[in-house]
Structures are given as structure tokens and as C-alpha cells.
Amino acid sequence: MIKLSSSSRQPIREAWTLERLNAELTINLGMAIDRSTHSSYTSVLNSYITFCRLHGFDIEPTPRTLALYVTFQSMYINPKSVDTYLSGICNQLEMHFPLVRTARQSTLVSRALQGAKRRFGVATLRKLPLTRNNLLEVFSSLGRSPSHDDLLFATQLFVGTDCLMRLAELTWPDKVSLRDYRKVTMRHSVQHLDNAISFWLPGHKADQYFEGNRLFIRKTSSEAYNLFKSYISSRDNCFRARPELWLRTNGTIPTRSWFIHRLRSFFPSSIGGQSMRASGATALAEAG
């Protein structure tokens, strides 16, 4: 029997029941990945199970089964997506089949995927970045007395571009089950500094520890700075008691579909939510 070292004292804690240990473990496992990622991985697992049932294969993810799955799926979707699908399959099946990642990394699966990419691969279609003229077009449309929602959209567009933000960091998912208040930016996090205004971005799915980031809108970014000040004034007049920073006229947090609908009233589908981040990054690169 291993004895405890006398030089290391352990705090006295009450023993948990087995039921509580299992319950807490279940919660931790459920929070290991983001809700949106879990939803995508569940869909991917369904596609793998459907493939196995369709062809009469055992569900165990052997190298050959995964290679056949890659071959089949690559006929219908981009092989780059199939590569991502394999990650989801590994995540969902690892608890039941501990060797699934070994099978995923096997030579057979790797070569099947590489061959599919060479055979069926297509160029990645990316959204175009917003140009300076694009932004000014939205800014000039506001007029002297813009509505609260018009001001909200323009502010999010300019701030998102200036701070290299993702659309998901400014809006809520359309699917209610994927909404998470831990990712919602709060009004009380806004700080007015001498040469900038800042607010706290609490977290996103790539920020697994929810450490967050403080974003700054500097006075030198005149349109973004002035729009943010105007929006804050309008928001506080309408919703002084509400904690959320971004709010529509009806009191709801703007959703992705709401933002995209507004974006479509100005630009074609070649401009999307990713265009803000791409535009900001391009501007920084050009500035050196």
C-alpha cells in the first residue's frame, strides 16, 4: 500500500457519492467542446452511421471502414469537408472506440483522403473583404437621424471591421439551442478612455477557457469611434436597465440572419460575415 508523504498535507474534504462523481464527470464531458461544434459533430456522426448501415458495415471505425467512408463521401461533398468530418467522427466515437484516432491517422486513410483531394478538390470560395467605399456607402446611408436598428447595424459593421471581429462575436446564432450568454458582450464592460473606447469580448468557441479579450476602438478610426458613441447613447436611452451591449429596437440581441439580411440590402452575396475580419486584416497589412 502506498503511504502519503508526511511532508505534504492534503486538505480534508468530504467524500462524494458515486452518483455525484458521475454527474459532475458528465457535465465536464458535455462542456469539453462548444455547443455549435458539438452540433456539427453530431451531424457528422449521423452521416458515418448512415454510411455503415447503408453498406452493411460494422460501426467500428477501422482504417478500411474510414477509408471507404472517405471515398464515398468525397463523391458528394468537398474532400476538405470530409477531412473535417473525420475529426468529428473521432471526437464522437473515441469514448467507445479508443483506437479511432489511430485508425484516422493510418496510411490507408491518409492516402485515400489525399487521393480524393487530388481527384475532386475545388478551389475554396471566400467572401470578398469590405472596401473603404463599401463602408462609406453604409455610413452615408444613415442620414442625420438614423433609426436605432440602422445605427446598430452600421456600428457593428464598422466596429467588427476595425477590431477584426467574427460575426458570431457580434450576433447570436439563429438556432436557439446554440445560444450561450457567456459569449454575450455586456454594456458595463465599456470603458471610455482618453483616445479610445473599449469593451470586453467575453469569449468564443476557439477561446476554450473563456479568458476573453478587451477590444479598443481608437479615435483615429473616426467613423467606428463616432458610430459607437452614437450607438451607446441610443442604446442607453432605450434600454438603460438591460445588461447586454448589442440590442435591437425590440429589445432582442441581433441574430446572424438579422445582420446578413441588412448586409444584403447593401451588398451582393460575395460579401458576407467574414468580410469584416478580412477587410480589417487587409487594411492592417496595407498599412504595414
From TrEMBL:
InterPro entries: Integrase_recombinase_N (IPR010998), Phage_Integrase-like_Recomb (IPR052925). Keywords: DNA-binding. Coiled coil: none annotated. SUPFAM superfamilies: lambda integrase-like, N-terminal domain (SSF47823). It comes from the Eukaryota. One of its GO terms (molecular function) is DNA binding. This is Core-binding (CB) domain-containing protein.
